[in-house]
Amino acid sequence: MTLITQGAEAHLYKTTFLSPSIPAALKIRPSKPYRHPILDRRLTRQRVLQEARCLARLVREGVNVPGVLGVDWDLNSVHSLKGVEKGEKGVGAGAWILMEWIPGCVVRVVISRWEKYLSSRSHSQGNGSVQAEKEEEEAKILALLRRVGAAVGILHKAGVVHGDLTTSNLILRGTGADADAEEEWKDGQEPNLEGDVVLIDFGLASQSIQDEDRAVDLYVLERAFGSTHPRTEPLFGEVLEGYRASYRGSGSVLKRLEDVRMRGRKRSMLG
Amino acid sequence: MIAIGLESSANKIGVGIILHPDDGSTPQVLANVRHTYVTPPGEGFLPKDTARHHRAWAVKLVKKALREARITPKDVDCICFTKGPGMGAPLQSAAITARMLSLLWGKQLVGVNHCVGHIEMGRLITGSTNPVVLYVSGGNTQVIAYSSQRYRIFGETLDIAVGNCLDRFARTLCISNDPAPGYNIEQLAKKGKKLVDLPYTVKGMDISMSGILAAIDGLAVQYGLDGEWNDAEEEAASDDSESAKPTRADLCFSLQETVYSMLVEITERAMAHVGSKEVLIVGGVGCNERLQEMMGIMARDRGGTVHATDERYCIDNGIMIAQAGLLAYKSGSTTPLKDSTCTQRFRTDEVFVKWRD
């Protein structure tokens, strides 16, 4: 079992399921010692069950998400309950969920590679013939962004909102045999922008078909985009275009998004 | 170079003087004086009265600061003031004082964003280079990370600020506003044991506080804990810890545990997203030791560190305005007299941060 990443909520491990040749993703939500044990149990349980239910539903609906292989929402529950009653500190329960392994690279990395690739090229070359090539490159990234928008649209259509959409929670599924070639990439090399967009990490997801929740989802993605990829931010409209085309009812969500954008505090009210 | 900073965006008026030695060594705080407008228990501060208080104190504090710093107006290079955000009438006190000093002394003005002031002072005092910043005060709640010359807001409150939530609950319970309502809630919460169920409202990267305030206010009314204190009753309740009825201390404890968990959660999410290991807590609520403790546990589990400052720099002060203003001044920005206005709305991410790369 190898630790892949420590997110905010959980630790993600790569392990195997049933046979050593089938990789699987194990997400462990350790208890959060900074939280009060009662609050911690409540939140951990709520979230892991929510995550499993959402994923199960999405798999049924045929959305591109990892399938659930197993879940436990109350590790050593008896022990921890007793601890709380005795007033012991820091004995909240943990929980885990085992999921299908998605080979590929997160979109955050793909985009930053693309940004680096682009800047390395604009340094080395500067003549007019590059213009056409540049447009071709841009077309590729635009297509990726549209696929991202479409993936979110299909998710919403299935009745689920993600709750924490960032480019780190989108995987570009590796294509072909060298699906595990995530690490081998040198600065300035052209990144692969092909492949299906798979949504992961449904730790804050919930079942909802309300425009409000859907719009907040898009808003979170938009803001995460702006803060992680300032250079690609101007192209975010393409994500929304992909979203618009992905299902009926996307129009009213995008309209709602404009209201949600106005919500941050202390904005200038001019214009 | 020497800058004088004037801050009066809420119920404190502060004057600070900072020296950036010409040889580039660590900046020195020459003076940092402040006066707080304190209202009776159960009352908040009204803009008009607060502004009157600030106007009465402005000149006294400037004189005191100059005396403490042992400098004369001739030594000052620029006059920095809070341009916003904050309450309109109180903000004007510092802006007018700054304009007056500028004309009197013949020095340049620099308008400063209050939030950026907090961040820059926190960075200076703690020496953290590129932290995720949690800015929590009576008027602001933001999780901020620096990227490409802007302090970008990752998450913020959608309605009221965390400090506002605590202050208003203090008002419901008629807790003293001296030295600060949040401080008194913190002390009371130390005696609390029972956790009452409150809404937990993290929405995306943002949080919402107004529903929590309504819920806990409702509980206070339901258990007859609002309004004037009745000491005998309070003692009886704390003796009888097995009873189902929560005490004032329990409510303060539950409120703190719930809202701080939310703050730590969104901060942790921002850290995970940016890949940063440092957290800097700034703003008035940043003095709260329970918040610092919770943040510390979170950071430790991630192999990171927490930087926090004490009440001299956490709570609104003039020195942070001087610090941020002087950084801007050295990078060539000044505010002409005709633009030296102040505004209630001024987002952290509107400021172009010229002095960092």
Automatic annotation (TrEMBL), chain A:
Q: What is its main location?
A: nucleus
Stored Pfam families = Kdo
Query: Which key words are in the record?
Result: Activator, ATP-binding, Chromosome, Cytoplasm, Hydrolase, Kinase, Nucleotide-binding, Nucleus, Phosphoprotein, Serine/threonine-protein kinase, Telomere, Transcription, Transcription regulation, Transferase, tRNA processing
Question: Which cell locations does it reside in?
Answer: Chromosome, Telomere; Cytoplasm; Nucleus
Instruction: Show the catalytic activity.
Output: L-seryl-[protein] + ATP = O-phospho-L-seryl-[protein] + ADP + H(+); L-threonyl-[protein] + ATP = O-phospho-L-threonyl-[protein] + ADP + H(+)
- Does the keyword section mention Phosphoprotein? yes
Q: What class of enzyme is it?
A: transferase
A single Gene Ontology biological process assigned to it is: tRNA threonylcarbamoyladenosine metabolic process
Protein kinase domain location: 1-271
Q: What are the record's GO terms for cellular component?
A: chromosome, telomeric region; cytosol; EKC/KEOPS complex; nucleus
Keyword Ribonucleoprotein assigned: no
GO MF assignments: ATP binding; hydrolase activity; protein serine/threonine kinase activity
User: Which E.C. number(s) belong to this protein?
Assistant: 2.7.11.1
Function according to Swiss-Prot or TrEMBL: Component of the EKC/KEOPS complex that is required for the formation of a threonylcarbamoyl group on adenosine at position 37 (t(6)A37) in tRNAs that read codons beginning with adenine. The complex is probably involved in the transfer of the threonylcarbamoyl moiety of threonylcarbamoyl-AMP (TC-AMP) to the N6 group of A37. BUD32 has ATPase activity in the context of the EKC/KEOPS complex and likely plays a supporting role to the catalytic subunit KAE1. The EKC/KEOPS complex also promotes both telomere uncapping and telomere elongation.
Name of the protein in its database record: EKC/KEOPS complex subunit BUD32
Q: Which organism is it from?
A: Aspergillus sclerotiicarbonarius (strain CBS 121057 / IBT 28362)
TrEMBL record, chain B:
Top-rank EC class of the record's enzyme: transferase
Taking every annotated instance into account, which residue ranges of this chain make up the domain Gcp-like?
29-322
For this protein, what reaction is catalysed?
L-threonylcarbamoyladenylate + adenosine(37) in tRNA = N(6)-L-threonylcarbamoyladenosine(37) in tRNA + AMP + H(+)
Listed EC numbers: 2.3.1.234
Q: What is its main location?
A: cytoplasm
Q: Which UniProt keywords apply?
A: Acyltransferase, Cytoplasm, Hydrolase, Metal-binding, Nucleus, Protease, Transferase, tRNA processing
Per UniProt, subcellular location reads as: Cytoplasm; Nucleus
Q: May I have one GO cellular component term?
A: cytoplasm
Instruction: Give an example GO molecular function.
Output: metal ion binding
Any Pfam family hit = TsaD
Q: Which residues bind a divalent metal cation?
A: 114, 118, 135, 316
Which cofactor names does the annotation list?
a divalent metal cation
Stored Gene3D superfamilies: 3.30.420.40
Q: Name one GO biological process term.
A: tRNA threonylcarbamoyladenosine modification
User: Where, in this chain's numbering, is substrate bound?
Assistant: 135-139, 167, 182, 186, 288
Cofactor: binding details: Binds 1 divalent metal cation per subunit.
By sequence similarity, the record places it as follows:
Belongs to the KAE1 / TsaD family.
**Name under which the protein is recorded:** N(6)-L-threonylcarbamoyladenine synthase
